[in-house]
Amino acid sequence: MIKFFQKILLSQESKNQRLFAAVEAGNILETKCSLEIGADVKKSHSERHNPLELAIRQRHTEIVRHLLEAGAPVEFRNAEGLTPLHVASYAGDEEIVMRSIRLFFGNILLGGTCSLEVSGAPHQ
User: Fold this and answer.
1) With pLDDT > 70 as the criterion, what percentage of the chain qualifies?
2) For residue range 77-87, what is the model confidence (pLDDT) as tens digits?
3) CATH 1.25.40.20 describes domain 2-99
C-alpha cells in the first residue's frame, strides 16, 4: 500500500534521487523499492553518471544485477565517454563485465539469443 502511494505522490525527480541515494549507499532493498515505484534507471545524475555506472564504480554487484534486469542502459556514455562496460573492465570486475557483455550482445545485437560462458567462449 505504501509503495502504491509513493508511486503516485512522489515526483519523478524524487524517485530518481531516491534511487541514486540507495545505489550510492549500497542499499539493495531501497534500490529495489525505488525501481518498483518507478525510478528511471536510464536517468543520469547531475554529475553525468547513471545509477549503473555508480553501482559498478562502488562494486555493488547485486545492485548492478537489479539495475541491469530493470533495463539500465549498457550503451550509456558518461562525461568521459566511458560505458558501464568500460568502467567495469577498468575496475577489474569480471562478473559485471560478463553480465554487461551478455546483455549487450544478447539483447541488443542478437535479440536475446546469445549466451556467453564466463570464459568468453560462446555457449551452444
Assistant:
1) 72
2) 888 888 888 88
3) yes
